[in-house]
Design goal:
The structure is a single chain. This protein is an alpha/beta fold. The strands form 4 sheets. The chain has an 8-stranded parallel sheet. Strands 1-14-15 form a 3-stranded antiparallel sheet. α13 packs parallel to α15. The radius of gyration is 27 Å and the shape is globular. The mean pLDDT is about 90. One of its GO terms (molecular function) is glutamate synthase activity. Pfam families: Glu_synthase.
């Protein structure tokens, strides 16, 4: 005989069975209204019976009915943490402070904070911008950067803050339309992501950066290879202002993807140029090129087919030598991209395996610093504009990226917050509670594109206004004047370091000058890089 204490785990199941029987008796004797508790407790009794018979979940088998509370609490754990337990500064992945700032600026609400900073200013990692005793007032905060190199015939005057790559398919149609309408209202650009130009982008009418990824959506032949004619038809659309070749993304660098056939709607198939009823594969690597020189030649082809529009590439830094291979190929072929976007490993709109999200790819600060200094070392930094992406949602985030070498910044999740994202972290489930990251038409209809587009434009405007105020406080007339020495960072509880010591600009041309000194192993790595192959001559 099992001990009585061992049977208590079945007490909840026994209780609902007993209540079902009592409700049935009451239904037969007293009132028809007892049919409601009878149905409820009968359903729970059947659930308990199923629990003790199934063999998939040990918790349910040992604790029938009651065990479901465990799964319920687990399902709402992110919401419980976010709304009840999380500190204002816990970054999971964005802090409440950061999200609140975006919401307030998007809604046009007061974003000033009383009673001083909540930051622990004497702890390691705290950073700040140095200010001047002669601050300046900046009236026009529509800060812009001209993108287009020597081979570009149609340069683009871009805002220094734009919407980063998010595909239609990952985001709902109304979300894409809201973002693009907002970009048009605010006069900034919207990256299409790898899903190509959809009808929702076109309905918005805002400036687009057309991303060409390894799946070649919008430029794809039937076998999945690159189709020059289809690419040209998309790239020459008047709404498309620049073309971005995606090598990797911060969320899952070095990882491909697959959109199951069941998730491919007619609208997604139309945008991507893929058939219905078949799984859609995005390979990890491009098939149009395999060497650094071939990559440069492909960039030249993309620019020619686009009618001279700016063409660049986006990557999250992995093997540093491989980026140096690309730079050597630029020098050898004379074909330079018009821009490079450095995505940090902290990027995250794309759902990724946990190992990739946590442990693959270089964070934005180090990646941007490396790319900037490699281009300086090769003597071509002035030929190429640099964009930066990776948790950039505030004026300080932008100022820091510009100081480290960027010419402009992109944000994905910041603009997602602007259209109503609540960081439910259900993007990959198709169950987004606010209609942003879903293809469920009933969920998506909760998002009003016209109303949310106003928030997108307002968030952009108010963020650049704050950047103007921070720029003026530093004694500068334009945020492009931010340099590393405008940053200070606390390394430990008792020491601080100036930005030009932590993130120095390395000398122009030192990589191609045999007599120049090495800096941090750059020249050693440069010596092992080849324009002809990405393959290493030895492990680095």
């Amino acid at each position: 005989m099992p001990k009585l204490s061992n049977l208590t785990r079945y007490s909840t199941f026994a209780a609902v069975v007993a209540l079902a029987l009592l409700s049935m008796i009451a239904l037969l004797i007293w009132s028809v209204w007892f049919i409601l508790p009878f149905m409820a407790f009968s359903a729970l009794s059947l659930l308990g019976l199923h629990d003790v018979r199934q063999n998939s979940h040990s918790v349910l088998r040992n604790y029938p009915v009651l065990g479901h509370i465990r799964f319920l609490l687990e399902s709402i754990r992110p919401e419980i943490r976010q709304y009840l337990l999380e500190d204002d500064h816990d970054e999971e992945p964005f802090s409440r402070d950061a999200r609140s700032l975006v919401y307030q600026r998007a809604k046009g609400q007061e974003d000033a904070r009383p009673f001083g900073t909540k930051k622990r200013v004497y702890e390691g990692g705290y950073s700040w911008v140095t200010h001047s005793v002669q601050p300046k007032h900046i009236e026009n905060t529509d800060f812009r950067i001209d993108i287009g190199g020597k081979d570009c015939t149609k340069p683009y005057s871009a805002s220094i803050y734009n919407i980063s790559a998010m595909s239609f398919g990952s985001l709902s149609g109304p979300a894409i339309k809201a973002l693009n309408l907002g970009a048009k209202l605010g006069g900034f650009a919207h990256d299409t992501g790898e899903g190509s130009v959809s009808r929702y982008h076109k309905e918005g009418g805002g400036d687009l950066i057309y991303q060409v990824a390894s799946g070649y959506f919008g430029a794809r032949s039937e076998d999945g290879s690159f189709d020059p004619e289809k690419y040209a038809a998309t790239a020459t659309l008047p709404q498309v202002k620049m073309i971005e070749l995606k090598l990797s993304q911060g969320a899952k660098p070095g990882h491909g993807g697959m959109l199951p056939a069941g998730k491919i709607t007619a609208e997604i198939a139309e945008a991507r140029g893929i058939p219905m009823g078949q799984d859609c594969v995005s390979p990890a690597a491009h098939s149009a090129f395999s060497t650094p020189i071939e990559m440069c030649e492909f960039i030249g082809q993309l620019r020619h087919l686009a009618g001279g529009k700016p063409v660049g590439f986006k990557l999250c830094i992995g093997h540093q030598r491989e980026f140096m291979c690309m730079v050597k190929a630029m020098l050898k072929t004379g074909i330079f991209p018009d821009f490079i976007v450095v995505d940090g490993a902290e990027g995250g709109t794309g759902a990724a395996p946990l190992e990739f999200a946590n442990h693959v790819g270089m964070p934005m600060v180090e990646g941007l610093t490396f790319v900037h200094n490699t281009l300086r070392g090769a003597g071509i930094r002035d030929e190429i504009k640099l964009g930066a992406a990776g948790k950039i949602v505030s004026a300080f985030d932008i100022a820091r990226a510009l100081a480290l070498g960027a010419d402009w910044c992109n944000s994905a999740r910041g603009f997602m917050f602007a259209i109503g994202c609540i960081q439910a972290q259900a993007c990959h489930t198709n169950h987004c509670p606010v209609g942003v990251a879903t293809q469920d038409p009933l969920r998506a209809r909760a998002l009003d594109p016209v109303h949310k587009s106003q928030r997108v434009a307002r968030f952009h405007h108010n963020t650049l206004k704050a950047l103007g105020e921070m720029t003026g406080a530093a004694g500068l007339s334009d945020p492009s004047g931010f340099l590393p020495h405008h940053l200070m960072q606390r390394q430990s509880d008792r020491s601080m370091v100036q930005g030009n010591k932590a993130f120095p600009y390395l000398p122009n041309g030192f990589l191609i000058d045999d007599n120049a000194a090495d800096h941090g192993g750059y020249k050693d790595r440069w010596s092992r890089a080849s324009a002809d192959s990405f393959n290493p001559t030895e492990y680095v």
